[in-house]
Amino acid sequence: MSALPLAGKVGLFFVALWIFLAIFGPALAPHDVGAVVSPDAFGAFSARYPLGTDYLGRDMLSRILGAARFTIGLALVAALSASVTGTTLALVAATAGGWVDEVMSRLMDAFISIPSKMLALVMVAAFGSSVPLLILTAAMSYTPGAYRIARSLAVNVKTLEYVQAARARGERLAYIARAEILPNMVNPMLADFGLRFVFVVLLLSGMSFLGLGVQPPNADLGSLVRENISGLFEGAPAVVMPAIAIATLTVSVNLLIDAISGRSTRAVEN
Amino acid sequence: MDALVHVEGLRVVVRKESGGEVPIVNDVSFSIPKGEVLALIGESGSGKTTIALALLGYARRGCRIAAGSIRIGDTRVLELGPDALYGLRGRKVSYIAQSAAAAFNPMKTVMDQVVEGAIIHRTMPRAAAEAKAVGLFTALALPDPKTIGARYPHQVSGGQLQRLMAAMALITEPELVVLDEPTTALDVTTQIEVLRAFKKVVRERGATAVYVSHDLAVVAQMADRILVLSDGEMREIGPTGDILVRPSHPYTRSLLAAAAPQPRVDDTAAQTTPLLEIRGLVAGYGRVDASGMPEKRILDGIDLTIARGRTVGVIGESGCGKTTLARVVAGLVPAARGTVRFDGEALPTNLKERTREQFRRIQIVFQNADTVLNPAHTIERILARPLAFYHGMRGEAARKRIVELLDLVKMPAALAARRPAELSGGQKQRVNLARALAAKPDLILCDEVTSALDTVVGAAVLDLLAELRRELGVSYMFISHDISTVRAVCDEVVVLYSGCKVDAGSRKALAAPPFHPYADLLISSVPELRTGWLDGLPPRMAVEAPAPGEGKPAAGLCTFLGRCPVRISGICDRVAPPRRELGGGKEILCHHTGDELEALQSAQAAKATSRQRGQSVG
Amino acid sequence: MADKALAGRLIAQRIGLGAVTLLIVSAVIFTITNLLPGDAAQEALGQSATPETVAALRAQYGLDKPGPVRYASWLGGLATGNLGQSFTASMPVADLVAVRLPKSLLLAAVTAAVSVPIALAIGILSAMWRGGALDRALNLITLSMVAVPEFLVATLAVLAFAVKLRWFPALSNAVDIKDAGQFFRTYAMPVLTLCFVVIAQMARMTRAAVIDQLGASYVEMAVLKGAKPARVALRHALPNAIGPIANAVALSLSYLLGGVVIVETIFNYPGLASLMVDAVTNRDMPVVQACAMVFCFAYLLLVLVADLVAILSNPRLRHR
Amino acid sequence: SHATKAHAQAPRKGGRIRAATTSSSTADTLDPAKGANATDYTRHNMLYSGLTQLDATLAPQPALAEEIRNDKATTWTFKLRKDVKFHDGSPLTPADVVYSLNRHKDAATASKVKTVAEQFAEVQASGPNEVQVKLAGPNADLPVILAASHFLIVKDGAKDFGAGANGTGPFKLKEFKPGVRSVMVRNDGYWKPGRPYLDEVELIGIQDEPARINALLSGDVHMVLAVDPRSTGRVKSTPGYAVLETKSGLYTDLVMRQDAAPTSNPDFVLAMKYLIDREQAKNAVFRGFAVVANDQPIPPSHRYYFAGLPQRPYDLDKAKFHLQKAGVSGSVPVFATAAANGSIDMAVLMQQSAQKIGLTLNVNRVPADGYWSNHWMKHPLGFGNINPRTSADQLFTQFFKSDAPWNESGWKNEQFDQLVLAARAESDEAKRKKLYGDMQVLIHEKCGIGIPVFISFLDGHSTKVKGLGSIPVGGFMGYMFAEHVWLDG
Ligand SMILES: Nc1ncnc2c1ncn2[C@@H]1O[C@H](COP(=O)(O)OP(=O)(O)OP(=O)(O)O)[C@@H](O)[C@H]1O
Ligand SMILES: Nc1ncnc2c1ncn2[C@@H]1O[C@H](COP(=O)(O)OP(=O)(O)OP(=O)(O)O)[C@@H](O)[C@H]1O
Ligand SMILES: [Mg+2]
Ligand SMILES: [Mg+2]
Question: Which terminus of chain C has fewer CB atoms gathered within 10 Å of its CB, N or C?
């Protein structure tokens, strides 16, 4: 880690900070997330309410601390599963080739064209609203994108001669995919994961808005911004703070990823 | 003194992962008078390319020019700022890279890239530059010089690319030209033409040049003076003649000693039970039609047998199908027709049906070492895999074995931790070989194993192969375009020309006529280790290899027809050539009888030798 | 010409596959929508629904028939180019789409015209100076741009440019646009918002693709010819990176048709995305189907174009 | 006789205004019978006129019917105004009225008021310009009921409303793009002399509240519906803009099904009712733009409001007592949705109070999408949202009577049913008021409905818009602003 560039260090710091907050946040929260503690909505920064109060007069600090856990937990799992599933399927498609590839690619194309709102609604309708479901839906709506990118990478790598060498050695497809192809596409996929993470974080609020996932009084960071949006005009911390929270979280995650993959690419280059 | 190039105490280092720096070129000093050609020779990995690049004030990623001074004319290269460097590169000094194929941008026409230097440095308007380029093309004996510029790199043969690169380097009339192994990747017949062309332009333009190579014979033709390197250190420097005749440094002597390869075959070990039997093989690439014939047919009716413990050489120019043949045996390319039998039983031509044992027993050493090693893996991991895969060898045992393997191919164990990109071309090639050896195979398909290596290491590798053969009875298919090596290691030799077996016979048969006309061309193209050999050669008629994609003659006819110096019009271009048995297991595919050919070829040989005697006096 | 033939083959093949994909999509959408609780009749009557009124309305919409039958008849209609009749808006689906589609396309086109060049510029610049200060700055900027929720960007933009400065209208219904100036004022903010969303991905992909090429040895050769970084990047690396870049662009742009609900609602822009969302809410299945088809088609088209660009830009593939 | 307080300066003719409601989708319709939301009501009131019209006190005023007679509140005769012309120039005839009233009974019309129309036993022309309506039973409120926008009068035989609208209203249809906008121009032949004042009205829907406010404050629109209480400060503080509060009978209520555990237990119901902190709901959720309610649906502003009913307090001890009496413990799910204005916040507030007496309320936020068909009245504990009904009778008949189609809590009470019928037949105001009072008490005490507050309608408008007032049916002057307002120069 010492070799991390500055940007990477900054990223690492914030990521660590957020993970810490996600774990211990609720314990540190001065108030209950649902408790209306102040008569006035959109209270400004104050000694009693460091991050002001929200549209109902609830303590913003406590709400953000509560939201961090959901946002990070959900987005991380969802984005990860999207990228992992996408990559795995892509590897299968690329290595197997032929009709397997065809069928999978067509299905993914079809998948991309299904409106995520509809997906979400069906999910809620079919299985009721729950956190695992939220993750599943988010993951499902981002898997095809990951798949497409991963597949194009994999197909390129597959044609390279060291893969031929592995085949001539009699290696199984599984090994070729895992050991020969994957390592040479992991960096771009990491970068892609970074962006997906951002998108999922933002998607969550939309989903909760539809009534899928995090249930009141809890909320994810995006929903905090959304539910307090009318405080924007008086520049209420209730809107600004969660927005900043999202920014620091997502940006730092990407900085960290860039730094890490940057390091390994440099290692490969020279 | 009036030397054009002055290099003092040059030192280049590479940064380690761990942080420290190690020198790859150390305290190198030399100077080149105007109009002279200095050759850098030395084993692979000795720092030749590094020095060459340093002359342009350039160091590869991860490398750094740590100390020393380089003066070209009155420019102090290492003291130039970025902008000044842009001005220097391609203007004062220009570079001809080791592999032309990789050095051309696949997306742009050849002409664009040839004149680019002139455009960048505004030495002349584009139109003028193009005119000049066409002039250079002619001077470099390129086919249809007027139009070749409009082609894309992939539409031009390797040898032609190499010459186009020369044109690219000369377009700005630089004071110094740096040629980095410009012919290593070429086969002899093409190499000759390229060397001729280079020599001609260098002479006419009185250019000053640095010629990097590990092939003494080639250097002997090109250089006025030679600088011998090993491990990034200067060993000696002197006029070509002296170095070749009375080398002072032991390393140089070893180089020379290895230059003319000794025979490494003792027929005692030879058995005759066939290990690999190929019959009537037809194979190729692209879509297969209803009858199972590939769109792009490469190999046509190949018969070939490799007996246990024997080595069969496959020679032929670039693109004739050598690698394809190996790939068929390895199962990477399906056979459209014919059979491949291994150790008595038929070998499934598609990978899925082969047993792991079959995989283990047949190993292929791929040609392009730099693309065949996974850039993401360390050397250790690359070598560990076959050990684990075939022999279930892991942990300490595996690590010990890996060190052994590296040692076998004359590489320091320290390199095990590096990734392929951190190795020189030759080093990669040896890792590539070591990986095959790890499997303890019965048959090794060696595709140009030594062509990227210098004579010393090359010789060492050949010894290794011979040793394995002696002790373990390993058999080889030895693919190469370097006949001298093939002569040295093979019991039998097969000559391919555009996918057809045109000549086959024992090693001895390859020593004296009669040959198939193409084989003859090949053999007489091998550079000899003495100055002036190149100039002594009789000027040949159209020996130009057709660029990829250019039409073969009608099916059935002799494929060599277009280039054959002894073709009989009326027969060769009408009737398919017969396959003639000439006794002693020798066979050729030609209309000429053995005697006719013998007559023709011995006469010609006589002429050549006499002329050269007359020349190389004094 | 070899490339024409090649492109032709590809297109033909893709059209076939595209048809299949569209079929899959329609089937999936149809089944999904049948899973959705409630139907057009219930939604239309809302709070005031009673069993009999619902039943009557169902009969009227033909929802009383079993699913497969409806799907079959829908397909039949599609075959004859008839998208069917909207339940809620008592008019042909084709008409509804005809009103919205051009608007959506226009918005997408304008956004693309603005965002793609910017993204490419950013990507190439940061690739040229990779690891440098500029690279880091651009990276940070693009990241922060995606990191802000879309609706926040939009609302802020309106607040600043419409309410405070009064430069642009807060709404972009894009009805009766007369002159260029008005056109600009109408599209400025929606396009701005969308750029925030799409630029980052394209820029990063471009950067990656170009850097990938900068490692190639012909690039080293160009450097040794004395080419300056700009020339190296633009004349040598970029042409070789076109393929992947085109794909990234295609992916991002495909978002501009279906994914812009938020922008359409906040700016009151009458596009397809919001049409579809409404349709889902009202369970107006013919409309949902039609929109899904359009989006899928657009997506496939973009991908096809991307692949064509990749092929035609590459001489190796062009003349075999 | 008008709804408008601000009648000081003389109205000015001419001008075009743009008004934004909360929604606009392909479901937008020109058929009054199908009217589903504020946007439809507003549009319909511009294009059509009804037999009657409501004033600020929700008292019915004659409109197309210039004279209304009734016999025991069962047989009603409407004398039609003469020389009223439809937009296409054809005169208004009894046939049009008969058709307009009868079509609601036909299921194919998919009328929102089918259930109300069921009571029209017979509708027929009883003279050159007279229409007679015979009711299945007495109903003194018929004139009020007929003022609802669904009962607006359309042309005889009108079926296809996709093509256009032919009404007798103050404005003619110029452009109608579902989900985009509708534009109406002044109908010079309007039967009210001098009305309307405006030349043209453009009606659009903006879902997103902040966007709506921004549109107003950036001058894009002159009026917006449904201002979020939290945005009022911002609007008021911007010079040239004002907020108009309309106190109304709109309420979001806690529905406790009487046919499911645990909500069927009267003590649990009481516990819940005591658990509602109405003041907090009023202040925190609605920022004061609401009136504390008392678990019965008649708002204080209504003429039948029974003031004598003691206010139920927020009383945790009583709540706890009843909860224990009901023997309910552990956790109970409560369903809330964005579709029911404020329900999610109220649910969260109740959750907080419940914690204090050791009851866990699990708030389930469910999609607004499809709420009414999939969740409303389908869970033991959930929320509903009831728009103001013009007549108390209608309200009780549709939502509280045992056989009410939308008896939210599934509450069955004989005494109440009889009271409803009695009141309906009673034409003596005083007696009637008494009967309605008794019903309010019954609901307050026994019904499975908790009504925390009555929510005010909040309109935002440019101060250039004059003549605005309140008609507590809804915002935008009960969706009838168009014929009342004018633009100040
Ligand atoms: N980028 C790099 N990073 C680290 N080490 C390098 C790098 N490039 C080359 N080397 C090392 O520097 C040494 C000299 O490399 P160089 O390419 O100059 O050898 P060479 O004489 O050109 O060999 P060859 O004949 O195989 O081309 C080799 O040992 C190689 O491993
Ligand atoms: N994957 C492929 N698809 C299509 N054509 C190919 C492929 N690989 C090789 N070829 C063509 O097949 C012919 C023979 O190729 P091959 O590599 O066997 O030649 P070679 O004898 O090994 O030449 P070299 O000495 O340069 O390695 C060449 O013309 C080449 O262009
Ligand atoms: Mg080299
Ligand atoms: Mg080869």
Answer: N
> What are the tens digits of pLDDT across the range C39-98?
888 777 777 777 777 888 888 888 888 888 888 888 888 888 888 888 887 788 888 888
Q: Which residue from C minimizes the CA distance to D26? A: C89
Ligand 2 mutation pick, B184, B190, B318, max ligand atoms within 8 A of CB: B318
- Ranges assigned E (strand) in D128-221: 130-135, 171-177, 181-186, 200-205
Residue A269: count of CB within 10 angstroms of its CB? 14
Distance of alpha carbon B290 from its chain centroid, rounded? 38
Give the CB-side neighbour count of residue C193, counting CA atoms within 13 A: 30
> In whole angstroms, what separates CA B25 from the centre of its chain?
24
Q: Report CA-CA distances (Å) from B354 to A94, B28, B393.
A: 22, 53, 22
Residue B47 and residue B54: Cα distance in Å, rounded?
Answer: 10
CB contact under 8 A, C240 and B117: no
Q: Tell me whether C223 touches chain B (CB under 8 Å).
A: yes
Question: Do residue A35 and residue D283 have CB atoms under 8 angstroms apart?
Answer: no
- CA-closest candidate to residue A237, choices A222, A250, A223, A225: A225
pLDDT for D214 = 92
Give the pair of three-digit tokens for residue D127. 């003279």
Rounded CA-CA distance B286/B293 in Å is 9
Is there a contact between D299 and D239 (Cβ–Cβ < 8 Å)? no
Total residue length of chain B:
618
- On the CB side of B71, CA atoms within 13 Å amount to 13
**Residue that has been written with the tokens 């490799």 in this structure:** B306
Structure-block tokens of residue A237: 């911390």
Q: Which residues contact D393 (CB under 8 A, 6 or more apart)?
A: D139, D140, D141, D420, D423, D424
CB pairs under 8 A between B and C: 76
- Phi, psi of D412, deg, nearest 5: -120, 120
As a whole number of angstroms, the distance between CA B507 and CA B494 comes to 10
CA distance C243 to B318: 30
pLDDT tens-digit map of D437-446: 999 999 999 9
Both structure tokens of B277: 């039997």
pLDDT at D235 over 80: yes
Residue C34, pLDDT > 90, answer no
Closest CA to C271 of C132, C111, C114: C111
User: Could you tell me whether strands B274-288 and B294-307 are parallel, antiparallel, or unpaired per DSSP bridges?
Assistant: antiparallel
Helix (H) or strand (E) holding D378: none
Residues 6+ apart with CB under 8 A from B272: B307, B308
pLDDT grade, residue C1 (50/70/90)? very low
Of B14, B354, B372, the CB nearest to A165: B372
d(CA B460, CA B70): 35
Strands B335-342 and B345-346, by their bridges, are antiparallel
Strand order in the sheet with B75-76: B21-33, B3-15, B63-72, B75-76
Mutation for A interface: C21, C158, C262, most A CBs within 10 A: C21
Within 10 angstroms of residue C144's Cβ, the number of other Cβ atoms is: 16
Instruction: With beta carbons less than 8 A apart as the criterion, state whether A63 and A224 touch.
Output: yes
CB burial class (10 A; 0-12, 13-18, 19+) of residue D294?
A: buried
Do residues A64 and A241 touch, judged by C-beta distance below 8 A?
yes
Rounded Cα gap, residues D137 and D149, in angstroms: 23
Amino acid at B68: G
User: ∠B86-B87-B90 over CA atoms, to 5°?
Assistant: 85
The model's pTM is 0.84
